[in-house]
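We were asked to recover a plausible sequence for a given structure. The inputs and outputs are reproduced exactly as logged, with field labels preserved.

PROBLEM: sequence recovery
POSITIONS: 128
GIVEN STRUCTURE:
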């Protein structure tokens, strides 16, 4: 019973932790911003290359954040699913086969969502 209460307390803190991480990423964005100064002697080609490099860095940062958040959320979801399935098996050992089947199906769906996030991040970096 004590462990169950601890688990509930941890689960209540997860949205706050994720919100703090998002705020941290948002507030740290200006740190990574570069101040671009143009010299009158630079050509249009050099300016275009600089803009492209800046855009690539921004894309990489956005893709990294997207994949990181998807993986973190997926890991939390998988942890909850595994904990609940273990609890269900402990309560009803005769239903172990059905519980395990549903658990595996759920984990596959969660992992698929994470892989979709990775594919979108790759598309952001290389296509856009």
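RECOVERED SEQUENCE:
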């Amino acid at each position: 019973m004590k462990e169950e209460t601890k688990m509930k307390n941890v689960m209540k803190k997860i949205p706050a932790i994720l919100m703090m991480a998002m705020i941290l990423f948002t507030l740290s964005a200006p740190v990574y911003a570069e101040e671009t100064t143009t010299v009158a002697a630079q050509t249009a080609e050099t300016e275009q290359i600089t803009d492209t490099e800046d855009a690539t860095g921004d894309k990489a940062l956005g893709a990294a954040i997207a994949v990181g958040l998807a993986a973190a959320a997926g890991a939390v979801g998988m942890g909850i699913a595994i904990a609940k399935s273990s609890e269900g098996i402990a309560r009803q050992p005769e239903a172990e086969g059905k519980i395990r089947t549903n658990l595996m199906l759920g984990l596959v769906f969660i992992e698929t969502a994470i892989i979709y996030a990775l594919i979108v991040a790759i598309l952001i970096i290389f296509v856009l």
